[in-house]
Structures are given as C-alpha cells and as structure tokens.
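Run log, item B.
One chain of 235 residues. Sequence copied directly from the ordering sheet:
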Amino acid sequence: MSVEENLRLYAFLWGIPREVAKARTEEMLELFELGEKRRMRPWGLSGGERRRFQVARELMHDMELLFLDEPTVGLDALTRTRILDYLAARARQGLTIVFTTHILHEADRLCQRIGVMSDGHLVTVGSPEEIKRAYRGARNVEAEFGRPLTREEAASLRELLAREGEEFALVEAHDDLVIFRARNAEALVADVAIWSRDHALEIERIAVEEATLEDAFVRLVSEPRPVFLPSSEVD
C-alpha cells in the first residue's frame, strides 16, 4: 500500500468517518511534507521520511492519550518546529501527550510538566520553570559601561562582586566590559546598577544569561539523591 493508502487505512481501523479521514490525510501529508511521496510505498521512503510517516499515522485518529517516543529524531529544524507547534495545538484542544525526548529545548517548549530520568530512576517532576529555577546553577552576567573603568573602579567592582556574589567567578574583564558568573545573578545586577550610579558611571548594556533546561538537567543528575519539587498534582 502507498503512504496515502496507509494513512486512510489507519483512520478506517479506528472508525474515522470517510470524509474526515480524507481531510485528515491531506492535513498530515502537508504537515509532514509527504505530499510528493503519497504514492510511494513506505519502505521506499528515506529514514527521516519514514519517521515523519510513522508520527503522521499515529495522528490520524482521535484519542485522549498519545505516547510519542522521540518523534522528532532525524527531522530537520523546520519540520521539527512545525510538528511541535501542531502537537502543542492538539494539547491545547485537550489531548494528553506523554513525550519522551533527549532534546531538552523541545521539552522546555512543549511540556507543561516534566519528569527527569537518570540511570533508570525518576529524580524530579515539575514544570519547566520550576526545574530551571531550582537547578539552574550559576549564570553569566555581562555589564558594559559607557567609558573605560579606571584601575581603582575595576578593583572596587571586582571586590563588590566577590563579596556579594554567591558561587561567584570573574570570567573576564576589559576596559569597559565585565563578565562574571554567579548563582544569584539578578541580585548582582542590582548591585552593579547601584555601584555604577555611585561612581557616576553609565551602564550601556547589562544582560543575564537565560537559564536553560539543559543546564538544570546537568546539575540535577549530579545530585546524590532524588529531589522532588513542590508542584501541584495533576488531576
């Protein structure tokens, strides 16, 4: 059977009405960029095309719960983005999706609740923001000033950051740019702003590195024992 016939057969097996199955087949062929492959046999598809076909087939019928095991492996960035957007839309419509992935920014983008596995054990469960906030660790801060710092100003600023910073480390310092790494990054931004005002020194730019789920994951799996975040239970 061809790719198109496979999709329609799958809909038939799940009792999808003929007209609905026809429309959904076209939707899946377009979404997964298989329109030009509709008359091919599945075994004639490339590895990435076959992966897209497998996911498309699972989405042909209506369900309340969908399990997807790394569905975007081998897909290009554009197709991956389109599929994730589609899954997010289906989730907003009430579909519950259990989604396993090693691509952590996918989990951050798509999932409302995440369980982190390490060595076969569930080590934490929480929303992406809860996990990032709890395990993000130290982050970089870049502060760029309107003029070069004098030697005395640079020494004063380094002393302030080292004194106030939690897990503080100075990454680099130039005439008008200071980059440091600290766990309490936001608090130090306020300290830098107050310090620059007291020294009549204009700040051109200040930026805190965004916390990522990948950073949190690396820190989390290094913990000696499971830690569960205080998160609301799912009904």
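Observations after the first pass:
- The longest helix spans residues 77-92.
- The CA atoms of residues 5 and 38 lie 8 Å apart.
Flagged for discussion on Thursday.
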